[in-house]
Amino acid sequence: MDDNVTVINHPLIAHKLTLMRRKNSSTQKFRSLLREVAHLLTYEITRDLELTTETIETPLQEMDAPTLAGKKLCFVSILRAGNGLLEGMVELMPSARVGHIGMFRDPESLQAVEYYCKVPQDIEERRVIVVDPMLATGNSAIAAITHLKKQGAKNMKFLCLLAAPEGVKALREAHPDVPVFTAAIDERLDEHGYIRPGLGDAGDRMYGTK
Ligand code: URA
After folding, report:
1. What pTM does this model have?
2. Which cofactor does it need (predicted)?
């Protein structure tokens, strides 16, 4: 893998991901674990945010204290599963703007079909983090990022929970300027476009559908 693919290695993330993979983990458990993992992933992916200082008063004295430099952020969720990751991210960074792109995967061709898009007007001035828990074929992520570039987005990262090697390769080839962050890269993609061993359908597992 190239330098622009980061597997966020952390014992807590690895442990929680294992709990999520278990087929008997309930919807409630899956959802709360996803929120916790989203916090941890956000902590890592925002490591390079710039800081400035602000003069504040503690109860004891004045000090120049670090604060985020106000570089504007935007999280873009690829519907519907992206919303599961998004929730935890917004909890950690409540002032971030949020965009949504609706994509579904044609079950025959496995190609991404866009049906909805709403993003902040000033997206070109923002650092954008595109989120989808599963990077499988890469088709949805590629289509979403292509669309966001047409809307003006310049500074993007892609964040997922689990990736297939095939999806990472496809996304890197289509958008080499967009670094990819994931909690794990699994063995392979199966013939139905599922990540193996994976965790099943992330949307179904978080919403209790199917
Ligand atoms: N989307 C999912 O939710 N799971 C997969 O394994 C692949 C794509």
Report:
1. 0.94
2. Mg(2+)
C-alpha pair distances (Å), 161 with each of 32, 39, 85, 117, 133:
14, 12, 8, 22, 5
Residue with structure tokens 């989120």?
131
The Cα 195–Cα 48 span in angstroms is 30
Class of domain 5-207: alpha beta
> What value of ipTM does the predicted structure carry?
0.94
Residue 157 structure tokens = 């990262």
What residues are in contact with ligand 1 under a 6 Å CB criterion? 81, 134, 136, 193-195, 198, 201-203
In this structure, how many other beta carbons lie within 10 angstroms of the beta carbon of residue 143?
Answer: 18
Whether omega for the bond prior to residue 66 falls within 30 degrees of 0, making it cis, is no
Helices then strands, counting H and E runs in the chain, come out as 6, 14
CA of 195 to the centre of ligand 1 (A): 6
39's CB contacts (< 8 A; 6+ apart) are 88, 89, 91, 92
For 152-183, the pLDDT digits (tens) are 999 999 999 999 999 999 999 999 999 999 99
Q: How many angstroms separate the alpha carbon of residue 59 from the centre of ligand 1?
A: 51
**Can you give the residue ranges of every domain in the chain?**
5-207
Which residues are annotated as part of the binding site for 5-phospho-alpha-D-ribose 1-diphosphate?
80, 105, 132-140, 201
